[in-house]
Amino acid sequence: MYFLIDYENVRNAGMQGTEYLLPDDHVIVFYSKAAPNMEARHLTDIKKSGCGFSTCKLLKVRKNGLDFYIATKVGEIVGAGYRGNIAIISRDEGFQAVRDYWTTRAVPTRRVLVNESISRSIISANEPTQRTQLVQQELKLLDIGNFFSAYEESLKLKKMLEEAFAGTEFSSRTGEIEDILKNGKTPKVIYLDTLHRFGRKDGLVVYKMLKNCAEF
Question: Is the pLDDT of residue 108 over 80?
């Protein structure tokens, strides 16, 4: 997938999602002397990903100069035979015209997307990959009140287990025990998971202690 970054327009906010870049992606940053710096973490992510990477600096300040650069690059990429998705990262609504043009002049597998960040573009592309699912999960909207209630319950469970297993040989593994309770849907699942993690002898001890301090 190609990501053409209108960096003067989106700055670092548009780079959200660099941690999800893949080796077969291509990132091109279009920038000017008005916005020459980027947060190190994004550049580090790009380097770690192994993706194709290049930059294009505006030669002369002209109205919508970078926009024309990007539109021209889209045509160059498509003309070279690329058949994947091309994402323009910008908040400039004028790029919708570029998207509309290629919607009627390219096969569906060669779409042009316009979004405010790399993450949003990955979701819009809707490619059947694990990273699409990861980004969707990261950007999923959650009810703040419900999240806080679950957070408080988690703290209570953590404190209860730390107190119950304090002074035992299992005191350093309360994190694992907490995972067993959170992932166990039934007593049988909790029992089997406990034995799997701690072995039969220690697992029976842990399970009995759990039964005494937790309701399941």
Answer: no
